[in-house]
Amino acid sequence: MKVALLGAGHIGQRIARLLHASGDYQVTVFDQNARALAELAAEGMDTQAVGESIEAIALSLAGQQIVVNALPYHLAISAARMALQAGCHYFDLTEDVAATKEIKHMAADARTVFMPQCGLAPGFIGIVAHHLTQSFDTLQEVKMRVGALPEFPTNALKYNLTWSVDGLINEYCHPCEAIRDGKAIEVLPLEGLEHFSVDGIEYEAFNTSGGLGTLCETLEGRVRNLDYKTVRYPGHRNLMQFLLRELQLHSDQETLKDMLRRSMPATMQDVVLVFVTVSGMKKGSFLQEVFARKIFAERSGDRQLSAIQITTAAGICAAVDLLREGKLPTSGFIPQERVRLPDFLANRFGKAYEKARQVHTIS
Q: Phi, psi (5° rounding) for residue 302?
């Protein structure tokens, strides 16, 4: 299948290499970064340099079958609209709630697939949570917790850049969806602070936007309480709250992003923590089921792969591959929970999660 990959950044390069190496996809990569494109071209992939306007890509989509969008979240609507006009299937990684709602609207009468939110959270976390809910007669509570963390934190924020700064600040600043007492509500980002430990390591978790995907809509009326929280090391949330609220950088996000890019080094030595708990009634008993995994950075040949790179790229590549295999609908909007967890974990790309280390000591 012919794939137009928009974006050759940290995640985009991994997506390109996975799809190209499979032998089932002819990948053309679009980006502004000449160096990144040159590296991929040297590995046998087609590349095309683009200017600052994403609309310039539109004319090059003729003949493509799939658009995979690995660009920043604020370009998701434009990319999806181009895919619609070109008659291509569309997949992206956006965590932006407003963008997803707009893409769902434009997909209503589409003859091709529109599947946003195909990364880690939103993405895999929603597939896991929905899978666990299926074995319950009635649902009491669904808790979804995900962290992409430096393995060796050394600064006061106890954080290093492991993915997009734009995406990070976006999820810290926008209202968060949740279900309370059976009804969908909005809660504030950075609120709902809680603490827990995994394998003897202390963590905190708090509300952030976008991680639920479309689960609020899917489970409203079925579950009493549902929420998503981002996991960090203790102390991170208080410092981010100071920056965003007390220093009022919430209203000057570009300054905050510049500060983080200048002062906080990126790292490829990270760990992704996935933790989902579901409780409810099953055959007359009140029970809880847990899914917990840790995914670590690893090496692939002479390249270091970060855990967030591995998990995010695996999510969207698995979604594309499941479409090719006929395990997804062929048109319209597809939420992440439409994917069966066994199908995902059995997929050649989704197996990146199956290799993860199971967590046994959570309190």
A: -95, 10
